[in-house]
């Protein structure tokens, strides 16, 4: 039986791939400025500078758009924690360190652009937003104990980047504002390039240590949680985002997991030992169950939306006409 590679061996063997993928990323990525996506002419002072503080009626965003924007922004705000965790599992030296620094700098633009947009347009309560940011960043992220190591992190961040790309794009579509849509589309493009980087390095992980990599992928897929877990009101907010298609089980299966399994040729590989094959079978069984869960989820959501629409119709019919 082949001996597992140590973390040092994995980092060393994958470093040339990281260097190549970083160079490819730098050749493709286009620079952009957060301030170009903020309608500054809509801004005005708050009470501390003689203006008016935020009030609910100032926001032009729907409830769904507000919740999705806040959730996505707070996710981006947790960057210091992600940087620390990735640096601990990868390296801050050599090609790994170059990538970690570049990735962090690019990710930081996302929270800058989103917060400036929301504050200037008064889309959400800035005081509540700042309170939530303090809570989220102070708490950081707490990954399961078994989620340590370079291969686990590569697999997780690959899935997470693809998922975040979808969440940003869907959020832009429900904002009903071309500026917000353009901003979130631009952010999603960053997330897509990041996903490509991590996906390609994970592919190299499969070629280098197939059994260890399929084990990592299986663990991540079975235990995956979006980084928004644990945020204030995350259960209610997450449910609303699922209900309105910001990010749901169908998207997770069809737009995230299935394309990644195909890119990694998970079910076509012939280089796994019996141990790796056990993990692949475990992964296959989980995905089969997820397929069934998606069907049940969509049926349940359809019933809920139908009841909601029927209730709205009844309420409209029973409204007393206003005499003028």
UniProtKB/TrEMBL annotation:
* Residues the record lists as binding Fe cation 2: 107, 161, 191, 194
Q: GO cellular component terms?
A: cytosol
Q: GO molecular-function annotation terms?
A: metal ion binding; stearoyl-[ACP] desaturase activity
**Coiled coil segments of this chain:** 287-315
Recorded E.C. number(s)?
Answer: 1.14.19.-
Binding of Fe cation 1 occurs at: 76, 107, 110, 191
Q: List, alphabetically, the InterPro entries matched.
A: Fatty_acid_desaturase-2, Ferritin-like_SF, RNR-like
Q: Identify its protein family.
A: Belongs to the fatty acid desaturase type 2 family.
This chain's protein is named Acyl-ACP desaturase
| The gene coding this protein | desA1_2
């Amino acid at each position: 039986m082949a001996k597992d590679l140590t973390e040092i061996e994995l980092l060393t063997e994958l470093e040339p791939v990281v260097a190549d993928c970083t160079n490819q990323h730098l050749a493709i990525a286009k620079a952009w400025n957060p301030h170009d996506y903020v309608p500054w002419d809509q801004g005005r002072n708050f009470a501390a500078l003689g203006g008016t503080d935020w009030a609910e009626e100032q926001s032009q965003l729907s409830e769904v758009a507000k919740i999705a924007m806040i959730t996505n922004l707070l996710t981006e705000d947790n960057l210091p924690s992600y940087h620390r965790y990735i640096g601990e599992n990868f390296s801050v030296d050599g090609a790994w360190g170059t990538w970690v620094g570049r990735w962090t700098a690019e990710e930081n633009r996302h929270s800058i652009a989103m917060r400036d947009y929301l504050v200037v347009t008064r889309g959400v309560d800035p005081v509540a937003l700042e309170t939530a940011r303090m809570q989220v960043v102070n708490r950081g992220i707490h990954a399961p104990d078994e989620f340590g190591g370079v291969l686990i992190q590569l697999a997780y961040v690959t899935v997470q980047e693809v998922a975040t790309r979808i969440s940003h794009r869907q959020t832009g579509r429900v904002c009903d504002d071309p500026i917000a849509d353009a901003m979130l589309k631009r952010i999603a493009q960053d997330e897509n390039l990041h996903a490509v980087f991590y996906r390609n390095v994970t592919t190299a992980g499969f070629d280098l240590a197939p059994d260890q990599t399929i084990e990592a992928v299986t663990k991540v897929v079975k235990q995956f949680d979006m980084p928004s877990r644990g945020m204030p009101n995350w259960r209610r907010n997450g449910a609303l985002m699922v209900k309105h298609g910001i990010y749901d089980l169908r998207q997770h299966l069809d737009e995230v997991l299935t394309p990644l399994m195909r890119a990694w040729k998970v079910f076509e590989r012939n280089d796994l030992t019996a141990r790796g094959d056990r993990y692949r079978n475990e992964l296959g069984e989980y995905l089969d169950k997820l397929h069934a869960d998606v069907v049940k989820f969509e049926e349940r959501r359809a019933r809920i939306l139908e009841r909601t629409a029927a209730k709205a119709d009844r309420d409209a019919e029973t409204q007393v006409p206003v005499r003028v």
